[in-house]
């Protein structure tokens, strides 16, 4: 079980305030989507949760401990992270790529234990990449690579998983596969936080949505409470057809924002 709490957390990149006094408490067993238009501060908020960017003010705590005061290894064992747009440069097999997820648990230069090997096997099974285990990761298709990288993240077996745009560049079938997997992880007791652009996927799979706009958290709640016609018009500048769980952008709003 894990609890991740933000208390008026703010992040500056240069002179720009990209996350502005965001407060939220995220608990185990929940799939949380962070949504909002480009430049809303979604990825910066996720990176602040991980302690990867310094806070300008406020705090982020993990089970009551300040993330900024924690050792990176301790954070990595509790918060598994799937960054967006990862490139693979080394010709590792998928099995060895997934095994890299165990690094937070290993001492320098140490070999994997039977428990580590079992964790890798579980991750391969959960991400459905057993058929890829002997393939060279740099030769995978986009969808195959996404599943392999997700398996590496699952191999950490952390109580929380944070994924930044895991659906990017995936076809609809693989998008469904990834969202279903993330929901299963939440149902199994993990805290899962993911940055999303697809509003229908957010409405269909997430338990809770954080809607960001220009660095500000403008709504926090159940998907259909957050994704109202008025908010979509005000935040995204669009009109949309809302037929739960379908959220279909129809046109740019012609009304003044």
From TrEMBL:
Native organism: Sphingomonas colocasiae
A GO molecular function for this record?
ATP binding
Q: From which domain of life does this come?
A: Bacteria
* Residue ranges annotated for the ABC transporter domain, each copy included: 4-239
This one is known as: ABC transporter ATP-binding protein
Q: Which positions carry the signal peptide feature in this UniProt record?
A: none
Check the record and name the InterPro entries matching this protein: AAA+_ATPase, ABC_transporter-like_ATP-bd, ABC_transporter-like_CS, P-loop_NTPase
Q: What is the protein's known function?
A: Part of the ABC transporter complex HmuTUV involved in hemin import. Responsible for energy coupling to the transport system.
PROSITE patterns the record matches: ABC_TRANSPORTER_1, ABC_TRANSPORTER_2
Q: Does the keyword GTP-binding apply?
A: no
Keywords, alphabetical: ATP-binding, Nucleotide-binding, Translocase, Transport
């Amino acid at each position: 079980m894990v609890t991740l709490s933000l208390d008026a957390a703010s992040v500056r990149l240069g002179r720009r305030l990209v996350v502005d006094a965001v407060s939220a408490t995220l608990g185990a067993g929940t799939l949380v989507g962070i949504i909002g238009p480009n430049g809303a501060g979604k990825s910066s908020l996720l990176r602040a949760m991980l302690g990867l960017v310094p806070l300008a003010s406020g705090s982020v705590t993990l089970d009551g401990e300040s993330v900024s005061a924690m050792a990176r290894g301790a954070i990595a064992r509790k918060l598994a992270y799937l960054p967006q747009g990862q490139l693979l440069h080394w010709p590792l097999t998928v099995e060895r790529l997934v095994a890299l997820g165990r690094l937070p648990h290993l001492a320098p230069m140490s070999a994997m234990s039977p428990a580590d090997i079992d964790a890798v096997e579980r991750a391969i099974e959960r991400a459905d990449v057993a058929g890829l285990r002997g393939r060279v990761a740099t030769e995978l298709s986009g969808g195959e690579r996404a599943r392999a990288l997700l398996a590496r993240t699952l191999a950490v077996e952390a109580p929380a998983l944070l994924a930044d745009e895991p659906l990017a560049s995936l076809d609809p079938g693989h998008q469904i596969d990834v969202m279903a997997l993330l929901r299963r992880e939440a149902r199994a007791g993990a805290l899962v936080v993911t940055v999303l652009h697809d509003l229908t996927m957010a409405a269909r799979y997430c338990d809770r949505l954080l809607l960001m706009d220009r660095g500000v958290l403008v709504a926090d709640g159940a998907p259909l409470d957050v994704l109202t016609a008025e908010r979509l018009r005000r935040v995204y500048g669009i009109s949309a057809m809302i037929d739960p769980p379908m959220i279909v952008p129809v046109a740019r709003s012609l009304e003044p924002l």
